[in-house]
Design goal:
Number of helices: 3
Radius of gyration: 22 Å
Strand content: 25-35%
Helix content: under 10%
Length: about 475
């Protein structure tokens, strides 16, 4: 622990509390909320080249090319900061640490300058395929994401809007880990000993994966994700030597998968272990170029973890446990999940028969109702046909049309929908809480930087009735 604390001090610098005092008409002092600071404040409104220090609360900054945070350096965004791209080539290359500390009342933004100034021209909250969506064309909105190298110590992003991240790697100067022309992830993390904290954020319109982690200690909680990737790409996709939690996320309209864990690769010596609990997945998986993909909880090749208390609505495929290469089935635990579908094709894929997901008697619907002989004579991978499940077990969201009217794959945006649970929802009280989060980033203890870990809820999905889940 001492070594970790020394590392954090070296990477982040000395935390400073900035208090400003002013007198109101009655001449009483008001003290603003303290802000985290590392190094000097950044004087210029345009970031270029190698950058470190603090972007001050409430200010707007611009970037147009690769901005590099060197190893041992830190770039901080205080609350209410806007970092706007002037060119699709704009991207953050992180070799040290990057911190964005928005708040619920004063969030941060990283996006294209036109998309921020004219959001209604770009965020299209209508039934539109992202491949033909005029709001997802490059002009005025695209930026190249947060690309981390193997020396990255910490990426810590809270209450931040990260819209339209991605594009393709340049031929002349591709980020580390990419080749020319490859799709850019919104965030690429690749240090098995580093920390990635991603909580309470909003993401709209990425080119491909929101997060790809080739190793690392991760905390991914309470985020709203919508309309990500064109014709491929998962939401949160982690590989060998990645451990942590993905919980209370609302994931709407992914091209391929929602939360995915694999032990593929040789990035470190730690087995991938990810808990995926209390997430809500809506209309995911319909733009995958691989017809066998599209699962919104996915454990592959040697990965392990727990997947409880999730809600799947009109997703292409339910929970997927891969048989080749084989997931760590002895250490995958799952159940107490609710699945809803508006077609026979959807309900017949709650347990994809091409893979080895084992039904759980605590799931909604209970497999005893459609698997003949379950559980006594059940055969792993057994095909079933359950037309009576169509439209059943409606989770009763506060505002969302079920059954949907139209093509389910086009319900890929959040808009004004409300995914909280209404009274009488079968998801209320149906969860499992006898397990603990992994809390892989516990060594980050600074009060500004540390993760806020939400334990599992007795209610299913990202918005339990206690109000302790997703805060959007």
């Amino acid at each position: 622990m001492k070594k970790v604390q020394i590392l954090m001090v070296a990477s982040i610098g000395v935390a400073m509390f900035i208090a400003s005092c002013k007198k109101d008409n009655e001449k009483t002092a008001e003290i603003s909320s303290p802000q985290f600071q590392a190094g000097q404040t950044i004087a210029s409104d345009t970031l270029k080249g190698s950058v470190k220090g603090t972007m001050e609360s409430g200010k707007t900054y611009y970037f147009y090319d690769q901005v590099v945070i060197n190893a041992g350096d830190t770039l901080v965004m205080q609350s209410g900061v806007k970092l706007l791209s002037l060119n699709p080539k704009a991207q953050l290359i992180v070799k040290g640490s990057f911190v964005s500390l928005g708040t619920k009342d004063n969030p941060n933004w990283i996006t294209g300058v036109d998309a921020y100034k004219n959001p209604s021209n770009y965020k299209i909250n209508s039934l539109q395929d992202p491949n033909s969506d005029p709001g997802l064309k490059p002009t005025g909105k695209l930026w190249g994401g947060i690309q981390c190298e193997k020396t990255t110590t910490l990426v810590d992003i809270k209450f931040t809007h990260l819209d339209f991240g991605g594009g393709t790697a340049s031929a002349s100067n591709p980020p580390d880990g990419y080749t020319s022309g490859k799709d850019l992830f919104l965030i690429f993390f690749q240090n098995p000993d580093g920390f990635l904290i991603f909580e309470d954020n909003w993401v709209y319109g990425t080119t491909t994966d929101v997060i790809r982690a080739n190793g690392g200690k991760v905390h991914i909680m309470r985020n709203n994700i919508e309309k990500i990737a064109y014709n491929d790409g998962d939401c949160f996709n982690v590989k060998n030597s990645t451990i942590g939690d993905m919980a209370y996320n609302l994931i709407v309209g992914t091209a391929k998968g929602g939360t995915k864990a694999s032990n593929k690769g040789t990035y470190g010596t730690v087995q991938t272990q990810i808990n995926m609990y209390n997430n809500t997945y809506i209309s995911g998986g319909y733009r995958s170029v691989d017809p066998d993909r599209g699962a919104n909880v996915n454990y592959e090749q040697g990965a392990r973890g727990y997947a409880y208390n999730n809600i799947f609505v009109n997703c292409k495929t339910g929970l997927r446990i891969l048989e080749n290469p084989l997931a760590d089935t002895a250490n995958c635990r799952y159940g107490y999940n609710l699945s809803y579908g508006d077609s026979v094709r959807i309900v017949n894929s709650f347990y994809p028969p091409t893979h080895i997901t084992r039904p759980n008697s605590h799931d909604i619907p209970n497999p005893v109702n459609f698997y003949p002989g379950f559980p006594n004579s059940y055969t792993l991978g057994q095909i079933y046909n359950a037309p009576t499940l169509v439209g059943q077990n409606n989770p009763k969201f506060t505002n969302y049309p079920l059954p949907v009217s139209g093509v389910v794959s086009l319900f890929n945006f959040i808009g004004n929908y409300n995914f909280h649970l209404s009274s009488g929802s079968p998801a209320i009280g149906a969860g499992y809480t006898n397990f603990s989060p992994i809390n892989a980033t516990a060594a980050v203890t600074n009060s500004f930087l540390k993760a806020t870990v939400t334990p599992p809820s007795i209610d299913l999905g990202a918005f339990p009735t206690s109000g302790n889940g997703n805060q959007h």
